[in-house]
């Protein structure tokens, strides 16, 4: 890829650089649209979520931390969360794991996107987590619960839930 998304994010975070934001938008918007449409959204709804996603990217750019995730991973996560929020507003629940994570081709990803993650693979990956992390991940992605609901269910502070999700 010609554009270094991490560098663009740094310019946006440090200088509120509008040119860097425009370049970032042009680089990621088509891929985000394909990602969202593959997850079952119409082109119009995908574009609406892209707008919300990119607004959040601009608004929260200072929260981006390259040592925790690449810019593309961070942006895709925001888009996924915006999609979940949008689906919840429509009352379309529960959201399936296939809707949350359709196959995505990401230059930074080391995961084999040609194969499907089956239940056994998911179990193995979840078994690598602590019991506390596993509970939070399960409730988030398989029970479609909000972080506040999870905090109440597990009787822990909301910040603890957020930390446990930040594997």
Q: What integer value in Å does the Rg equal?
A: 17 Å
Low-confidence stretches: 109-117
CATH architectural grouping of the largest domain = Orthogonal Bundle
In helices, the fraction of residues equals: 55-70%
Tell me the CATH superfamily of the largest domain: RNA polymerase sigma factor, region 2, helix turn helix motif
What is the overall number of helices?
Answer: 9
Largest sheet geometry: none
Class computed from helices, strands and strand pairing:
mainly alpha
Task: Please state the overall shape, judged from the principal axes of the Cα atoms.
Answer: globular
**For the terminal residues, how far apart are their CA atoms?**
27 Å
The CATH topology label of the largest domain is Rna Polymerase Sigma Factor, Chain: A
Portion in strands: under 5%
């Amino acid at each position: 890829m010609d554009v270094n998304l991490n560098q663009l994010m740094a310019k946006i975070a440090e200088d509120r650089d509008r040119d860097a934001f425009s370049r970032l938008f042009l680089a990621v918007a088509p891929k985000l649209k394909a990602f969202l449409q593959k997850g079952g959204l119409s082109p119009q709804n995908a574009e609406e979520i892209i707008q919300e996603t990119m607004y959040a990217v601009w608004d929260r750019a200072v929260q981006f931390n390259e040592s925790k995730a690449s810019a593309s991973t961070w942006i895709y996560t925001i888009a996924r969360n915006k999609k979940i929020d949008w689906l919840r507003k429509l009352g379309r629940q529960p959201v399936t794991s296939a809707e949350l994570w359709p196959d995505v081709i990401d230059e930074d990803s080391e995961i084999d996107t040609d194969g499907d993650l089956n239940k056994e693979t998911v179990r193995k990956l979840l078994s690598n987590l602590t019991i506390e992390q596993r509970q939070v991940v399960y409730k988030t992605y398989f029970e479609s619960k909000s972080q506040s609901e999870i905090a109440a269910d597990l009787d822990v502070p909301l910040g603890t839930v957020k930390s446990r999700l930040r594997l």
